[in-house]
User: Fold this.
Amino acid sequence: MTYEIKDKKTIVIASKGGRDKSYDDLVEELPENEPRYALIDLEFETDDGRPTSKLVFISWNPDTAKIRDKMLYSGSKEAAKSALNGVGIHINATDHSELDFETAILPVAKKFT
Assistant:
């Protein structure tokens, strides 16, 4: 799921992805120059080969976004996180390199297994 702030005060669902969607599909949903929040149910294998999953909250606040939007999303992040029960992993991303699955997302998720 991706979330956006409407009218500078309400966090709403911007898009939903089904179980058939991939992490890359989620990244494509994130606008290049606008902040968003995202929530994923990340399924992966632990280092010892066990299948597991974790809920991951991503705060997408690109460097190229407008200053006012960046401040709005930064200020609302804690409220968004607290409304999503069961989320154990929080990731802040400001450019696409910080969204790379193999180098940025998966290593963080594996720390919590």
